[in-house]
């Protein structure tokens, strides 16, 4: 029989494993971190949010993006449920593509203090122009393999 993982060593302040209210803004969203059990090893973690939405601050129309977040953890890992709630908090948030993408990268980096982090925001076209936004921090450790983010450039319907 497989051994069940124990959450006894995790802080009780985590959103993981319990019902929580959906945050209605990025400022109210809480990002949780958990200890990295492989802190002495350099490796890459990737989160993909292919259905990210926010609101255009000028028109009030929805904007859609495919986000890819890669990071090399240090002492902390980003807890995925809190990331899901944080990403969802942008649904009613008015900000430009560049601001949303960089804001998310900076917030995660500040919370988990990663060795290296990059975020790619692949935004779907508005007014016929797709906007891709990239931000990174830290220096990539030499022994870490980073695959391509895997998002094809926008080519329209042809």
From TrEMBL:
Reactions catalysed according to its record: 7-aminomethyl-7-carbaguanine + 2 NADP(+) = 7-cyano-7-carbaguanine + 2 NADPH + 3 H(+)
Gene3D superfamilies named among the record's database cross-references: 3.30.1130.10
Location of the protein in the cell: Cytoplasm
Name of the protein in its database record: NADPH-dependent 7-cyano-7-deazaguanine reductase
Organism, scientific name: Bradyrhizobium archetypum
Binding of substrate, residues: 78-80, 97-98
MF-aspect GO terms: preQ1 synthase activity
Pfam families: QueF
One of the GO BP terms on file: tRNA queuosine(34) biosynthetic process
Family: Belongs to the GTP cyclohydrolase I family. QueF type 1 subfamily.
Annotated TM spans: none
Pathway(s) the chain acts in: tRNA modification; tRNA-queuosine biosynthesis
Keywords of the record: Cytoplasm, NADP, Oxidoreductase, Queuosine biosynthesis
Name of the gene this protein is made from: queF
A GO cellular component annotation in the UniProt record: cytoplasm
EC number assigned by the record: 1.7.1.13
InterPro entries: GTP-CH-I_C/QueF, NADPH_dep_7-cyano-7-deazaG_red, QueF, QueF_type1
């Amino acid at each position: 029989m497989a051994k069940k993982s124990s959450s006894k060593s995790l802080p009780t302040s985590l959103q993981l494993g319990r019902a929580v209210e959906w945050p209605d803004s990025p400022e109210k969203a809480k990002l949780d971190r958990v200890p990295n059990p492989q802190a002495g090893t350099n490796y890459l973690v990737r989160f993909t949010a292919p259905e990210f939405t926010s609101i255009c601050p000028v028109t009030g129309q929805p904007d859609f993006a495919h986000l890819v977040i890669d990071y090399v953890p240090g002492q902390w890992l980003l807890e995925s449920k809190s990331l899901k709630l944080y990403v969802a908090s942008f649904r009613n948030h008015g900000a430009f593509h560049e601001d949303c993408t960089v804001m998310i990268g900076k917030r995660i980096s500040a919370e988990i203090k990663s060795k290296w982090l990059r975020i790619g925001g692949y935004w779907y076209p508005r007014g016929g122009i797709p906007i891709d936004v990239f931000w990174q921090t830290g220096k990539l450790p030499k022994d870490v393999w980073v695959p391509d983010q895997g998002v094809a450039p926008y080519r329209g319907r042809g």
